[in-house]
TrEMBL record:
Residues 448-524 form the AMP-binding enzyme C-terminal domain. It comes from the Bacteria. It comes from Crystallibacter crystallopoietes. Residues 35-397 form the AMP-dependent synthetase/ligase domain. The lineage of its organism: Bacteria, Bacillati, Actinomycetota, Actinomycetes, Micrococcales. One of its GO terms (molecular function) is medium-chain fatty acid-CoA ligase activity. PROSITE patterns: AMP_BINDING (PS00455). This is Acyl-CoA synthetase. The keyword Nucleotide-binding does not apply.
Length: 551
């Protein structure tokens, strides 16, 4: 059997990172403990209904660590965390870091209960922390009624929605675990599931050192100190939001949890909290600017920077942010390697719009040939982006084959993204080798939609392609052929996809019925040609909408 915790850790490389200061002899818990000792009463996490000080956050982490230890968890055991953005996510991560457990908070709202059960089984979770009525099918499925299917599970914690009670994990006894905190910044502390183009989840493994290296770099390059108030509009379960949480809590700052109800004012919340730096995707920036220009909130005097990831920053969005005194940061990163490229505060607006910036100090990037990974391409030439540095993952969980195929023989991580570098080292993203649609920062994998749609009795072939959208970036268009004489009924097709387990967040929003779908010589769907037909107006998809009524 494969050693599930086998990693790529190279000791000579590790020594080099320590010598250069990219890695340090501190765990995530130790970093947060330093912040708590310096200013214990400072607000660590700010929510609409409560504030949590560093003292209370670390107290909760210690109590949770003791509770998990009493349940029999050992170093290296996995803890599944399925929660919205709330202070308990941070406390759970710190508890895992304290005891040497592996936190898996990358379970998203757009997962179904079935998805979560499968992922918990896959990771061999020993503990589960969750909130009822959460997830893509929360209206008809309950995760707690299915936890018995996870045979490795020793215990679970059920949290009610955050209220005005400032105590985190109030039902857990006030007993910290015996012994000193776990101290190995090279040990795996974080497991994040990210899907490949087939939709099969891959578990990305990180240590305290690989997680903290890009956080330290970003804080240094953007002059972010313990006065920072970080507001992530992306959920803490996502790579972008998780990085924002680490930045705030290991640097002694304040994290603002994005827990607004739909329709509530983000601009007003940013103003009320005094947020100094925001993390999000282009859609978030567009919505914020719309609010400001509507006059609901006059200004955001403390907001200085806005990290925008997931897609390129539109020129007009960058210009409008700068006009209200906010410097946009264009960035490039991924779960496997952290936030490894970004623009700097002093960069020209034209560069911010055109590129994803330069690698942080310590991260190396190169553009390689698609035919031969050993060939580095010159500046200005499009190829696959490869990277190497202190924030690159330790490997994929229980998947040595995928780990080996993700790296070149000399240790360069293959991102699967296409782009080119200019003479100054700025990366310009041109496309993706992997087949993925990004809707408002949410990754949607067409292969899963196509496979499910093809099972519908009225569908012959199916292809999911992106339709450009000014606000969200992309939406899903499902192109299908008929299996018989009748057109597939949109509502019936959406209902079928729902019954087959497709998340409502991945549902197609456009449908096009065609006589045939073009194929490549290999027999694969020619999606590039389909997209060209869409752009040329040769096909005109009809909007469709998945609703409860459609079920």
């Amino acid at each position: 059997m494969i050693n599930r915790m086998l990693t790529r850790l190279d000791m000579p490389q590790a020594r080099e990172y320590y010598d250069a200061g990219y890695w340090q002899d501190q765990t995530i818990y130790a970093r947060a403990r330093v912040a708590a000792s310096c200013n214990p009463d400072k607000v660590a996490v700010l929510e609409r209904s409560r504030t949590t000080s560093y003292r209370c956050l670390l107290d909760a982490a210690d109590r949770l660590a003791g509770h998990l230890a009493d349940a029999g968890l050992q170093s290296g055991d996995r803890v599944a965390i399925w929660l919205p953005s709330r202070a308990e996510v941070a406390a759970a991560l710190l508890a895992c870091s304290r005891n040497g457990y592996i936190a898996c908070p990358s379970l998203h709202r757009d997962h179904t209960v079935g998805d979560i059960v499968a992922l918990a089984q896959r990771m061999g979770a020993k503990a589960f922390i969750g909130q009822p009525n959460y997830g893509a099918d929360s209206d008809r499925a309950d995760i707690f009624s299915r936890l018995n299917e996870v045979e490795t599970l020793r215990m679970h914690i059920r949290l009610e929605p955050a209220g005005s009670n400032g105590t985190l994990f109030p039902d857990i006894p006030a007993d910290a675990p015996d012994g000193a905190p776990h101290h190995d910044p090279e040990a795996i502390v974080y497991l994040a599931f990210t899907s490949g183009t087939t939709g099969r989840p891959k578990g990305v493994m990180h240590s305290s050192n690989t997680l903290l290296a890009p956080v330290r770099a970003l804080a240094r390059d953007w002059n972010l100190d313990d006065d920072m108030v970080i507001y992530s509009l992306s959920p803490l379960s996502h790579n972008l939001g998780f990085g924002a949480m680490l930045l705030a809590l290991t640097g002694g700052g304040t994290l603002v949890a994005h827990d607004l109800a739909r329709g509530q004012s983000v601009a007003r919340r940013i103003a009320e909290t005094g947020a100094t730096f925001v993390f999000g995707v282009p859609t978030h920036a567009i919505d914020l600017l719309t609010e400001l220009e509507r006059g609901d909130v006059v200004s955001l005097p403390k907001l200085k920077g806005f990290r925008i990831s997931g897609a390129a920053i539109p020129t007009d969005v960058a210009e409008r942010l700068i006009a209200v005194g906010v410097v946009p940061q264009s960035g490039y990163g991924m779960t496997e390697a952290g936030s490894h490229h970004y623009t700097l505060p002093e960069d020209d607006p034209a560069l911010i719009v055109a590129s994803s910036g330069r690698p942080y100090r310590g991260h190396e990037a190169r553009i390689i040939s698609g035919d031969d990974a050993s060939v580095e391409l010159p500046a200005g030439t499009v190829g696959q982006i490869a990277g190497r540095g202190p924030s690159v993952m330790l490997g994929y969980f229980d998947d040595q084959l995928s780990t080996e195929s993700a790296f070149t023989s000399d240790g360069w991580f293959l991102t699967g993204d296409l782009g080119w570098a200019d003479e100054q080292g700025n990366i310009h993203i041109t496309g993706r080798k992997k087949d993925v649609i990004i809707r408002g920062g949410h990754n949607i994998f067409p292969a899963k939609i196509e496979n499910l749609a093809s099972r519908f009795e009225a569908v012959g072939r199916a292809a999911a392609i992106p339709i450009p959208d000014k606000r969200l970036g992309e939406r899903v268009c499902l192109v299908v052929t008929r299996a018989g004489q009748s057109d597939p009924a949109p509502d019936a097709l959406l209902e079928f996809l729902d019954q087959q387990g497709l998340s409502k967040y991945d549902m197609p929003e456009y449908l096009q019925i065609v006589e045939s779908i073009p194929l490549l010589p290999s027999g694969k769907l020619d999606k590039r040609r389909l997209s060209a037909q869409l752009e040329a107006g040769e096909i005109t998809p009809n909007p469709i909408r998945f609703t409860a009524a459609a079920r």
